[in-house]
Q: What sequence folds into this?
């Protein structure tokens, strides 16, 4: 008679939605839960669509792993706590502010090494936000701004470099507010300079979304002149009309955005610009929308993240006069069309120019200015190789 058959539990799985900071945090969560039969959904709540995708991911995960514990963390776990807790698929929720504490997961204090899920190393150096943008619910899920001290950032990056990471991406909820809560309130430029000095062999350092009004003089100089900082600036812009920016309670104007980009491009001609833009913010008129469209061309936005406005619980914007949903959808489509047109023109101008491409695991890679480039079949992930593109297909250089 044969004995009982032992079945090996599947390893911990972390499903990530939302921002690059979530990516970095998910890798640490996965390390803490190594060997556990658990699925974690690291959620996002920046828009109602993000919450819908979170719920969809929970249902899909439960179907795929019916016997595993299913836990939810991230912003939606705080902001939509009651609704997510009521889902029959969910076994528990972990507060977003506690998700990097091993005690929250009943995990050992000394967890397994972090194994990056991606070729590039995403390093969260800042969390939370002290601003009060009228549309944004994220401070409810992330809390106030907190900065990782320089020494700790360097330790994290050293571990990634020891593991062979060829590119480091600095992330945060409000990245350019890094340092405001540290002694002497250093600017982000201090951290970036420290990283470059400590790791002279680091080939590529990239910044995630930044607030242009917070770019300090040292950071400006480094972006403008330091070759190891990738020539790719993603602005937390949100809109192209000053009145809407004021109603959003943003701290910059349209002119501020145009000025910072123009000054940087004077020194670094190959700098590519990305931006977040919201379509259909409350009270937005056709005139306001036209300004949103026109700033795409004026800034030459080639990496556009377009968000149709959706009211978030407890925010001032949710109480403002709302734009018709059909109009929001149409305006978002126009913004996407405009950014796609700018992107295609930009890619055409890159044809024939050699690109130093960091190969990913899917047969593509990223050039310095974040152009997606096809790499030869069989290229190991993490390899940096020179490719001279000859054509474009579906928004990718070939």
A:
């Amino acid at each position: 008679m044969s004995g009982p058959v032992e079945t090996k539990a599947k390893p911990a799985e972390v499903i990530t939605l939302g921002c690059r900071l979530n990516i970095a945090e998910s890798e640490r969560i996965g390390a803490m839960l190594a060997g556990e039969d658990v699925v974690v959904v690291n959620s996002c709540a920046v828009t109602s669509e993000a919450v819908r995708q979170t719920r969809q991911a929970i249902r899909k995960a439960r179907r795929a792993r019916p016997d595993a514990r299913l836990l939810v963390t991230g912003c939606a776990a705080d902001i939509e706590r009651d609704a997510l807790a009521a889902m029959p698929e969910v076994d528990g929720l972990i507060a977003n502010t506690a998700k990097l504490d091993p005690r929250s997961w009943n995990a050992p204090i000394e967890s397994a090494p972090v194994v990056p899920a991606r070729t590039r190393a995403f390093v969260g150096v800042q969390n939370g936000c002290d601003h009060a943008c009228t549309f944004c619910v994220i401070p409810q899920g992330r809390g106030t701004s907190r900065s990782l001290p320089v020494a700790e950032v360097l330790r994290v990056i050293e571990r990634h470099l020891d593991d062979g990471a060829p590119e480091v991406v600095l992330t945060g909820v409000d990245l350019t507010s890094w340092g405001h809560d540290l002694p002497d309130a250093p600017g982000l430029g201090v951290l970036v300079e420290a990283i470059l000095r400590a790791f002279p062999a680091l080939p590529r350092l990239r910044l995630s979304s930044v607030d242009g009004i917070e770019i300090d003089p040292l950071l400006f100089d480094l972006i403008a002149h330091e070759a190891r900082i990738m020539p790719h600036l993603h602005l937390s812009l949100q809109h192209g009309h000053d009145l809407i920016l004021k109603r959003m309670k943003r701290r910059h104007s349209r002119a501020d955005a145009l000025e910072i980009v123009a000054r940087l491009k004077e020194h670094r001609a190959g700098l590519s610009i990305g931006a977040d833009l919201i379509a259909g913010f409350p009270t937005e008129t056709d005139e306001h929308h036209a300004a949103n469209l026109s700033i795409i061309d004026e800034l030459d936005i080639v990496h556009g993240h377009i968000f149709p406005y959706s009211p978030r619980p407890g925010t001032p914007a949710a109480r403002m006069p709302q734009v018709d949903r059909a109009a929001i959808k149409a305006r978002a489509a126009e913004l996407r069309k405009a950014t796609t047109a700018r992107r295609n023109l930009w890619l055409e101008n890159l044809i024939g120019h050699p690109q130093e491409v960091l190969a990913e695991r899917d047969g593509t890679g990223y050039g310095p200015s974040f152009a997606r480039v096809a790499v030869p079949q069989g290229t190991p992930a993490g390899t940096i190789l020179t490719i001279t593109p000859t054509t474009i297909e579906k928004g990718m250089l070939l």
